[in-house]
Design brief:
single chain; alpha/beta; D-Maltodextrin-Binding Protein, domain 2; 2 domains; 6-stranded mixed β-sheet; 3-stranded antiparallel β-sheet; 13 strands; 38% helix; 21% strand; disordered N terminus
Length: 307
């Protein structure tokens, strides 16, 4: 974090930006692995590729909103299974991960990755859809649940009290893109609970067209940043993302709770790939996800138990 502070201070001096405008909260937000550290956000910063990309013993594709869990989860797994030290994980949107599995490659900047996953995690519905369409999975396990919340700037300057306020013309919304973010369907279901089809249409059609709803490409990074940088006024997110920004990183944001009658809770499922390149490691990791040690890590970051 200190290197981001120093970079922000340098930019402030160079371009005449005040200290209050420093963007020293840029990702990545996870503890880095050992080795030579070189990261210059936003020019050179890889936030959602984790660990050992060369000759990994286990490859994990996590739905991106779990980025904050990965470091502690893998450390706990290595404690139980010290034979697995080279682990590679991605925390990208689940729709992007599914396309990566289907196409066989991911290109990020100048980097091409052709690793096949041993484990893929996503919402329970997305796992079921992919199994029906592709028959990818040998075994699955439901491991966590998560409701929605609204992330706003500290002090709630737009006085957001609930989902209905996101339809106001003066409220700029950061919204996950339904094209690759499973959370978007959940949020739209909540919009309809809060204000019917009219509210959903206003936020997802009219406001998209006039630019006051921004559709993200990777919501669990973009939405908090847009709030922190003053580009959006409100962002519907998983409650754990709001919790992480407030309680773990102490960023100047706060949460507006969505009542249970309007909320939607997702269940997350881990799936073992039928063609897992590291078959035994995949079995070991799926078993680990069912253990008290793994569940304790998810509880630490605000996830609810699946059952």
């Amino acid at each position: 974090m200190m290197r981001y502070f120093a970079l922000g201070l340098l930019l402030a001096v160079t371009f005449g930006v005040s200290a209050a405008d420093r963007t020293d909260f840029l990702p990545p937000w996870n503890p880095p692995p050992a080795g030579l550290q070189f990261s210059v956000p936003p020019v050179d910063a890889i936030a959602d590729l984790h660990g050992d990309i060369v000759d990994p013993q286990l490859v994990l594709f996590f739905a991106g909103n779990q980025f904050m869990v990965v470091h502690d989860l893998l450390e706990a797994f290595k404690q139980v299974h010290p034979q697995y030290q080279r682990i590679y994980a991605e925390t990208l949107p689940p729709g992007i991960l599914a396309k990566q599995i289907e196409s066989g490659a991911l290109v990020m900047g100048n980097l091409r990755i052709t690793l096949k996953p041993d484990i893929y995690t996503a919402g329970k519905g997305a796992i079921a859809d992919n199994q029906k369409q592709h028959d990818w999975f040998a075994d699955t396990y439901d491991y966590a649940r998560n409701p929605l919340a609204i992330l706003v700037a500290k002090g709630n300057p737009k006085h957001i009290t609930g989902l209905a306020d996101l339809g106001r013309a003066d409220v700029r919304v950061s919204m996950p893109n339904p094209a690759w973010e499973g959370i978007a369907k959940q949020i739209e279901a909540s919009y309809r609970k809060a204000g019917g089809d009219a509210l959903d249409h206003t936020i997802m059609d009219s406001k998209v067209k006039d630019g006051s709803t921004f559709l993200t490409r990777i919501h669990h990074r973009q939405s908090p940043l847009r709030i922190l940088q003053g580009d959006s006024d409100a962002a519907p997110v998983w409650s754990t993302e709001a919790y992480f920004q407030q309680q773990i990183m102490h960023f100047p944001v706060e949460t507006v709770t969505i009542p249970a009658t309007q909320n939607v809770t997702a269940t997350y499922t881990a799936a073992r790939m039928k063609d897992a390149p590291h078959a035994q490691a995949a079995k070991d990791f799926l078993a680990f996800m069912q253990s008290p040690a793994a569940q304790a890590v998810y509880r630490k970051y605000g996830f609810l138990p699946a059952h």
